[in-house]
């Protein structure tokens, strides 16, 4: 493992920053204190800062000093916490009831800050790095909001890169794959409108519960009879609500759940089939339905060229045998997907281990994402920061000539 020595030297400072952020978690679009911490650190290292994108977003700007034009790239970290109770009792546990950094965004922020500090002191590259500290990844669509506020127009970049810790992957290892890396995230609500009656006289009503049961079972035929077997997708009905008493046929029943796909075409097909099945099943029983289908995040699709480049940087850092360059995609979702729809780039997983890094006083649950016993592994701080720095230097080294040549070609054609 070829970690940068200067980053190792200030690992303890990064650890202190990470644990401070962990102890003061803030939810989507409420990351005021966290943004202050980030901006204060960047400015202390001589990095110009722009604030206010998506309310609490922060963008740091590091310009290289080497002659030539390698263009610009973006490095993104998310800052928000989750609305859940922490089960850990160690010293840096959450001090805010019902809020917790249970997905490692505190660590993502600290790793990018580590890279920022090193890049600010070592600007021997030909290009510009935009350090993107994003709010509201956890369901708030902060990436899209930053884009709506002009992220890519105010800070034009040729590519954008992201990284997320992944429990279960050993520390010192990475995983990445070209194409689909994470799934789209979508939610649905189907309301079955029946006709209430006395449970002893069901023939006088239209039972919405029986209609809901039929719809629930029929929706799974989309997976087995409408979707091509080689296309991955999930329909999960996670809630069915109806009724208030044992002797009443209720007026309505509600089904809620999620749909995950790696393809927008598959998603379009699933939504259309869900509407048709729900509508016509209800009609067959004399009921009606209202269906709401919310598309939250699109699938996260890594671009082949940028993914191959990132995998090469990772292999040089930890060794080819420590990089799973064809990892299995996950049905989890990430709003970095919005950025990859607009710009080429790559998103990688950095191994967070199995949880034996946690301080005494951790909860008894597993060290998995979105779990009250989770904690980010501070051993990743210099590793993640080194990856960012190496990516920057190798990117501009590889692209400076190409950008300059393109500019000359355009000029010659005028």
TrEMBL record:
Its cofactor is Mn(2+). Its EC number is 3.5.1.32. Pfam families: M20_dimer (PF07687), Peptidase_M20 (PF01546). InterPro entries: Amidohydrolase, Bact_exopeptidase_dim_dom, Peptidase_M20, Peptidase_M20_dimer. Residues 187-282 form the Peptidase M20 dimerisation domain. Keywords: Hydrolase, Manganese, Metal-binding. Belongs to the peptidase M20 family. One of its GO terms (molecular function) is hippurate hydrolase activity. Transmembrane segments: none annotated. The Mn(2+) ion enhances activity. SUPFAM superfamilies: Bacterial exopeptidase dimerisation domain, Zn-dependent exopeptidases. Mn(2+) binds at residues 103, 105, 138, 164, 370. It is an enzyme of class 3 (hydrolase). This is Hippurate hydrolase.
């Amino acid at each position: 493992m070829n970690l940068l020595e200067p980053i190792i030297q200030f690992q303890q400072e990064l650890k202190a920053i990470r644990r401070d952020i962990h102890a003061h978690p803030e939810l989507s679009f409420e990351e005021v204190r966290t943004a202050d911490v980030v901006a204060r650190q960047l400015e202390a290292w001589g990095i110009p800062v722009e604030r206010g994108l998506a309310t609490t977003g922060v963008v740091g700007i590091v310009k290289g000093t080497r002659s030539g034009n390698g263009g610009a790239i973006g490095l993104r970290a998310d800052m928000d916490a989750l609305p859940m109770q922490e089960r850990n009792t160690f010293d840096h546990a959450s001090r805010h009831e019902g809020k917790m950094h249970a997905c490692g965004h505190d660590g993502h922020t600290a790793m990018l800050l580590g890279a920022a500090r090193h890049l600010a002191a070592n600007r021997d590259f030909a290009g510009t790095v935009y350090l993107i500290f994003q709010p509201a990844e956890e369901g708030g669509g902060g990436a899209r909001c930053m884009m709506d506020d002009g992220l890519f127009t105010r800070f034009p970049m040729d590519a954008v890169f992201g990284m997320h810790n992944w429990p279960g992957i050993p520390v010192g290892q990475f995983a990445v794959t070209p194409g689909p890396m994470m799934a789209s995230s979508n939610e649905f609500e189907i309301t079955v409108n029946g006709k209430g009656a006395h449970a002893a006289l069901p023939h006088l009503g239209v039972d919405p519960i029986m209609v809901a049961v039929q719809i629930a079972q029929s929706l799974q035929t989309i997976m087995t009879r409408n979707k091509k077997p080689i296309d991955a997708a999930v329909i999960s009905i996670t809630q069915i609500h109806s009724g208030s008493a044992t002797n009443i046929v209720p007026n309505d029943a509600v089904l809620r759940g999620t749909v995950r796909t790696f393809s927008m075409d598959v998603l379009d097909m699933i939504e259309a089939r869900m509407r048709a099945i729900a509508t016509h099943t209800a009609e067959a029983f004399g009921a009606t339905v209202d269906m709401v289908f919310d598309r939250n995040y699109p699938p996260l699709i890594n671009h082949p060229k940028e993914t191959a480049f990132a995998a090469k940087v990772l292999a040089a850092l930890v060794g080819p045998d420590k990089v799973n360059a064809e990892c299995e995609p996950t049905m989890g979702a990430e709003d970095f997907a919005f950025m990859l729809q607009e710009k080429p780039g790559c998103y990688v997983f950095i191994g967070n281990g199995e949880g034996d890094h946690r301080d005494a006083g951790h909860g008894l649950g597993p060290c998995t994402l979105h779990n009250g016993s989770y904690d980010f592994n501070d051993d990743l701080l210099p590793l993640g920061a080194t990856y960012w720095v190496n990516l920057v230097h190798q990117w501009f080294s590889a692209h400076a000539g190409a950008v300059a040549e393109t500019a000359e070609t355009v000029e010659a054609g005028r």
